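Lay summary. Proteins are chains of building blocks that fold into shapes, and those shapes determine what they do. In this project we predict the shape from the chain. Here is one chain we studied, written as its sequence of building blocks.
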Amino acid sequence: MKELVEVLVCALVDHPEAVCVTESEDDYAVIIELRVAPDDMGKVIGKQGRIAKAIRAVVKAAAAREGSKKVIVDITQ
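And here is the predicted shape, written in a compact code that computers can read:
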């Protein structure tokens, strides 16, 4: 899942070298934390959060296909 998020986000931003994706796991879910440059935050979130929702939907579908735990994508600065 980490690689999927990284590929999606690097295609969207102007500074792909600043993209940092970390993955942690607990008993119930896999948490993917996404950090981007402050200039690229708007590109990742999109108008009314549409891009962020789309990224979360793609990751959720990929996780369901693999049969893994619930995946949470957290976008931070």
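What the prediction tells us: The mean pLDDT is 93.
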